């Protein structure tokens, strides 16, 4: 089992900005926000809500287990993102590198909300923690 580790926003930014990297093939971002999946997201992300994540786990593994790097995120990456990353890591049988985005979407949007290569569907919200 590959143990999940944190990835800094700047590291993920470099991956996304690298035009030789193909989302879904070279890396995958999985956003596990539930009803709070709104206000902005990372382009090419797939949303697998944490409230039924275990139900979609087998499908996620069968479709994306060949992607070398998978990054989980949620609002702050304190509970849902790390929990789903651990659940994924405990079932996948590959050499994937599994990360959790440090600071979650709050941190990501704080830094990159104005960069259309890094954020889509951004909506200014009172609920963002910045």
From TrEMBL:
Where does the record place the Rhodanese domain? 23-117
GO MF, any single term: protein tyrosine phosphatase activity
GO cellular component labels: cytoplasm; nucleus
Which is an annotated Pfam family here? Rhodanese
Out of the domains of life, which is the source?
Eukaryota
Sections of the chain in a coiled coil: none
Kindly provide the name given to this protein in its UniProt entry.
Answer: Rhodanese-like protein
């Amino acid at each position: 089992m590959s143990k999940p580790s944190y990835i800094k926003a700047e590291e993920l930014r470099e991956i996304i900005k690298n035009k030789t990297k193909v989302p879904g093939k070279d890396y995958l971002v999985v956003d596990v926000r539930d009803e709070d999946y709104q206000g902005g997201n990372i382009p090419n992300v797939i949303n697998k809500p944490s409230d039924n994540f275990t139900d979609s786990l087998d499908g996620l593994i069968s479709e994306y287990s060949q992607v070398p790097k998978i990054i989980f995120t949620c609002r702050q990456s304190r509970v849902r993102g790390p929990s789903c990353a651990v659940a994924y890591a405990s079932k996948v049988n590959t050499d994937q590198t599994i990360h959790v985005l440090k600071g979650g979407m709050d941190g990501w949007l704080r830094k990159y909300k104005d960069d259309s290569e890094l954020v889509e569907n951004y909506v200014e919200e009172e609920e963002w923690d910045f």
